Amino acid sequence: MQNSPALVPLLLLAAAISIPVLAIKKTGVAYLAALAASLGSVVISAYNALRVWESGPLTYHFGGWNPPIGIEYVLDPLSVFVALVVNVVAFIVLCHAGGLKEREIPGKSVPYYALVLLLLCGANGMILTGDLFNLYVFLEIFSLACYGLIGIGEKQAPIASFRYLIMGTVGASFYLLGLGFIYIVTGSLNMADVRNILPHVYGNPAVTTGLALIVIGMGIKMAIFPLHGWLPDAYTYAPSTSSALIAPIGTKVAAYVILRVLFFVFDVKFVSQTLPVTDLIGWLAAIGILFGSVMAMAQNEMKRMLAYSSIAQIGYIGLGIGLANPLGFIGAVLHILNHAFMKGALFLVAANLRKNAGHSDISKLDASYRKKLPWSMAAFTLAALSMIGLPPTAGFFSKWYLALGAIDKGNWVFLGVILLSSLLNAVYFFRILEKVYLGTPSAQGAEGAPSPKSNKGEGFVAGEEEYALMIPAVVLSFSLLLLGLLNANIVKGVIQRIIPLGM
Amino acid sequence: MTNPEIYRSLMPFYAVMVSLIAAPLILMSSRQANLREFWTLAASLVKFAVVFLLLPGALAGRIAEFIFWEISPGIALSLKADTLGVFFALIASGLWILTSFYSIGYVRGLNEHKQTRYFASFAVCLSATMGIAFAANLLTFVFFYEILTIATYPLVIHKETKVAIAAGRKYLIYTLTAGVLLIAATAWTYRITGALDFRAGGLFGNTSLSPSIMMVLFLLFLGGVGVKAAVMPLHSWLPAAMAAPTPVSALLHAVAVVKSGVFGVVRVVGFVFGPELMRQFGLNTLLAIFAGATIILASLLAFRQDNLKHRLAYSTVGHLSYIVLGAALLSPASLIGGLLHIANHATMKITLFFCAGALYVKHHKEKISELDGIGRAMPWTMGAFTVGAIGLAGVPPINGFVSKWQLGLGALQAGEILPLAILVLSGLLNAGYFAPIVYRAFLKKPAVPYERGEAPPAMVIPIVVTALLSLLLGLNPDLFFHFYRLAVMVSGSILGGGP
Fold first, then answer.
1. ipTM of the complex as predicted
2. Which of A223, A384, A485, B399 could form a cystine bridge with A231, CB 3.0-4.6 A?
């Protein structure tokens, strides 16, 4: 298994290409093949994570070409961790996708699953690569798959997708342009190599320009405020399976790239003091947190609300980056994990609602939905509590580390924003919870409601929920309890091993 | 005082987990009401037994400790059954038994809906309360404090009426904001001290800090625990929360939740800041001013309430601040008095709430102005009510007198006259707002004569037991549970004098 680092992207790519061929006769094969490939990627990335855990960072040279000429894959605790998170969440969401394909993507399942695998291939490549240009290539694979997955959705989806395409392409071009500047000065594309050369050329304006372009380009992909314009429409109109896949993964990968470039290609001192990029990101993120939360409160459509909530949550990650200290870094990386699980679970529940009720309109929700979908709603409740940041769920600990980081830095505004945002989250999530648990069904009115004595609808019967739809949501959201209670293991075992030098 | 001996034990863990395990069992037996209620009763009895077994150790200065695992690098989720913790846990778990019996009578008497949710939430609340009592450090405290907030919510909105939902919102706004402030204070403390373990006498040690930072930090803590302790101006969720069913008001909004708040105040004053820092930065004066103002204002506001439960709620607000005042005065007797009042107010106020619930179940009476002559129809209920009422006014031989006496002594020990005057005035005000109820119930003639008869025995027996407890603890404060000795030990450990 010497080649295991390269296997994940290659496996996904191969599967993506062969799906259209395999599924010529029977379209059902496409789903199974995608599921199998995704499971494979989970297994291999878990194996990679284990290897890194035991024997420290690994590098892999593609085609035997040595860096800095050849393409290098770098598996350090951070990259294998993020890759594992992405693959696991993607697998769980794919398990769920099976029950939705007739409703969300009728007749398009073959190209759809091929695109899903391309998306994952791009994501894995971006995470594992140690080469700045190779990263761009995977970024494009990732983005194009993304546009496709969004465009497949309802009537407005192609427009949303097109808008994303324009902005995304601008972002990618910015990244490429920035990369060009860096390449002109350093003559290298390998991250480790660039890192060694950069200290000699920090005075050069091209470095500054390059960094700015890269951050803006990736900032668009990450949807950091005010570069988030594409996100709400894209998440809302995409098929529910796509939003459940892209929301936890898409922006996180971009956030990971920003982390990687700022702290592991450039160094901490340069980006936080000489050229305070991190401060800028932190403040924009703080505004984004408040903006996203307030906008989320105003939404009447669950997926749209979750989209705005994503903008706020990405702000948490941005805030952690902005703090540029170890605790902020821990908070940011931990939140990549936590938010992937939370948002995944929430979008899956929104998908279940659409499948069962035909809509995910918040104002139409009432107690009958809880009776129809008791487990989905339990999953939603738990994920919502985590979003608010209540112990023992995972969300509490993101908040805890970010708060510690803000205090460490003496930035009281950031502290205030983190804490205020948890209250704002409470407002827009309890609005839904109140309806789901307490709203009296309007149609048949009080007549249809169970009499006070009977306990109908309570208890442990999964109603008419489909297991295939219910279990993934429940798994994701109940993992939040585990992730919360065991977070110290993740922090100590993974994140603290890779605190960037100079923090 | 010699350092207490600390030993590893699973008992604190069991105390927390018993009702947490009971909650899913309750949910699963939602269709068999008797089995479901059996789980509640069994959990309450087992929990009390477990806590009671911790008592001898606590009295001997042996502290049981249970460490789960680290939940943040360097900070473990851990439980420690120290004297203060056992003191609080005994009260909460003991009264849960009575409340469980009473609840069964209450919800069946009223044919309440969603009884499963009700009993399950109740069980989770008690787990959280035990966690708060035994929390060994601030982060563990925050952990269970927030769980308590959420677990209480379904009970506040239980009736699902517009009023209840509005009360639930208000409750969440207050308590979640408090939680956030507490998290900020905890995180800040951690950055300053690098440790969060509660330590009698304070955990800041010799760290020198500017007065303004200390003041802000203290206000953050006060905002965090003050909401549940209903210190004015953070109290207004409590009267609103009276929309909950009466057993909830009785146990949670007179004992578990609000006492978690004052317990938090004692922890913050005695185990985070410590008496020296409190005095050095004048924080105790600040706290005493809040508490004194709350005592008087709440008593005055109580007069205006015609709804019996609302009047009791304002009375609770006032009495909680007795405890806060005791902590703020920082003299041996005042701490003893404050701590005893945690227990004494609990038995008295739970009696009064139980009575209010009995009146509601039997005659659907909620307003004081409707109670004319009801005492003759329900002599046991209203007799118990009278015991609780005169106790709260501070008349011997009921236990309210004991704690008030100690508080008064404590004020003199601290060399302050004003708190003593506040206590005396508050006693008069208490008498003033309880007397009309008793007068109406026994001496006025009802418009329509009542049929003689009490609420179901499951309700009346707990009422009589709590009233009797109030009387017995008034005659001998050290009876059964050694509340007095525990209080003396806690006060000694905080002030460093040692018993």
1. 0.87
2. A223
> Does some domain include residue A114?
no
A413 touches chain B (CB under 8 A): no
Q: Cα(B329)–Cα(A339) distance, rounded to whole angstroms?
A: 46
Asked whether residue A295 is assigned to any structural domain, the reply reads: yes
How would you label B37-64 residue by residue, b for 16+ Cβ within 10 Å and e otherwise? bebbbebbebbbebbbebbebbeebbbb
Specify the number of domains making up chain A: 1
- Tell me the count of A-B CB pairs closer than 8 A: 93
Q: Cβ neighbours of residue B195 under 8 Å, at least 6 residues apart?
A: B137, B203
Residue of higher predicted confidence among A380 and A100:
A380
C-alpha distance from residue A292 to each of A229, A387, A426, B142 (Å):
11, 13, 13, 27
**Coil, strand or helix: which one is B194?**
coil
The whole domain housing A465 covers 267-444+461-503
Helix runs in B393-417, H state only: 399-413
3-state SS assignment for residue A65: coil
Q: Count H helices and E strands in chain B, helices first.
A: 20, 3
A456 contact partners, CB below 8 Å, separation of at least 6: A371, A450
Closest CA to A416 of A283, A309, A305: A283
Which one of A370, A429, A438, A499 would you mutate to disrupt binding with B, by most B Cβ within 10 Å of its Cβ? A438
Task: Please state, in angstroms and rounded to a whole number, the distance separating the CA atoms of residues B329 and B283.
Answer: 10
Backbone angles phi, psi at B77, to 5 degrees: -75, 110
Residue A200 lies in a domain: no
A290 touches chain B (CB under 8 A): no
Q: At what angle do helices B257-266 and B332-363 cross, to 10 degrees?
A: 170
Inspect the interface and report whether the beta carbons of B180 and A430 lie closer than 8 Å. Answer: no
- Tokens representing A98 are 């099976």
Angle between helices B162-193 and B211-226 (to 10 degrees): 150
- Name the residue among B69, B172, B187 with its Cβ closest to that of A404: B187
Q: Alpha helices of A56-106 — where are they, by DSSP H?
A: 77-97, 101-104
What was the pLDDT predicted at A459?
Answer: 38
Q: Is residue A371 part of a domain?
A: yes
pLDDT at A32: 87
- Is the CB of residue A452 less than 8 Å away from at least one CB of chain B? yes
Residue B79 backbone phi and psi in degrees, to 5: -115, 145
B142, B146, B191 ranked by CB distance to A407: nearest:
B191
**Contact B410/B481 with Cβ under 8 angstroms?**
no
pLDDT on residue B55: 86
Q: Summarize pLDDT for A380-394 with one digit per residue, the tens.
A: 999 999 999 888 889
Q: How many C-beta atoms lie closer than 10 Å to residue B115's C-beta?
A: 23
- Tell me the CA end-to-end span of chain A in Å, nearest whole number: 35
- Burial level of B205, CB count in 10 A (0-12/13-18/19+)? exposed
For residue A385 the two structure tokens come to 């509590």
